[in-house]
Amino acid sequence: MSSSPRRYWTPKRVAISTAVTAALGFALLFLGEAFAGEPAKPPAAGGGFTFGDWIERLSPILILLAVIVLVLVRLPKIDLGHSPAYRRRRVMNWLPMGLTYAFLYMGRYNLNVAKTAFGDAMPLDDFSIIFAIGTITYGCSFLINGPLADKFGGKLAILIGAAGSAVCNFAMGWYTVNGAGDDMLVTFSVLYALNMYFQSFGAVAIVKVNAPWFHVNERGVFGAIFGILISLGVYFAFDVSGIILEFLSVEWVFFMPACLLAVFWVIDFIVVKNTPGEAGFDDFDTADASSGDDGPRLPVKEVFVKMLTNPVILTIACIEFCSGYLRQAIMQYYRPFVKALKKGGEEVDPMLLWVFDNWGLLLCCAGIMGGVFAGVISDRVFNSRRGPVSAVLYGLMVLGSIVGIFIITTPLVGWLVIFMSMCIIGVHGMLSGTASMDFGGKKNVGVAVGIIDGFVYLGTAVMAGVFAIVLPSSDIDPATGMRFDSLAENWIVWPIAMVPLSVIGLLLSRKIWNAKPKAKAKAAGS
Question: Which CATH superfamily is domain 84-284 in?
Answer without folding.
Answer: MFS general substrate transporter like domains (1.20.1250.20)
